[in-house]
Amino acid sequence: MSYRMVKPTNLPDVISIFPLPGALLLPRARLPLHLFEPRYLAMLDDAMKTDHRMIGMIQPNGEDRLHRIGCAGRVTAMSETDDGRYMITLSGVSRFRVVNEVEGFVPYRRCEVMWDGFGNDLGPEEVDAGLDRDGLMALLERFFEDRGLSTDWDGIKEADPELLINSLSMLCPFEPEEKQALLEAPSLSTRRETLVTLIEYALRSGDDETRMMQ
Fold first, then answer.
1. CB neighbours (10 Å) of residue 100?
2. Where is the Lon N-terminal domain positioned along the sequence (predicted)?
3. Which pick of 5, 38, 177, 187 has the fewest CB atoms within 10 Å?
4. Domain tally for the chain?
């Protein structure tokens, strides 16, 4: 079953949860993960025994609480290292809303979830008619230079709008609450607007810090 072919009727009511600050997964995007803690190795083992092979990525909200919205991904690649760790790839399927946490005899967290309201996540790639690619590229170059980051500029410039915006949302070094805002954006265009706002704010904050040091 391809992760792009998942139907609402195939989505489970209960999924395992991986609360990881700053790690963002979006529908139709891919997130590499490095698993080594025993509880998450057990989570992976149990997920691979199911038909859906899904794990829910979610941002913690405080010490023990979770944000209400996360994104589930299907394990589509996995390799084991010599010392028993796993490198996996999650392919984003759909966002979900947490109903409640499920108690049980497993070392990791599980939640009952609802998929209502995220029907577009299971459809074709989104388009962004308002995307100003040249303007976004210029802003990105300033941001990456300011942060001392490097990237494959040729690949970014050739990427389709959804891949471009979602990849940048996942990769840019934003705070967990900012990542959550990108996750909850109702459409690709609003995610792009949120992304631009966050980059512009980060650049302004950096300029303010420079002036204060002078």
1. 8
2. 15-203
3. 5
4. 2
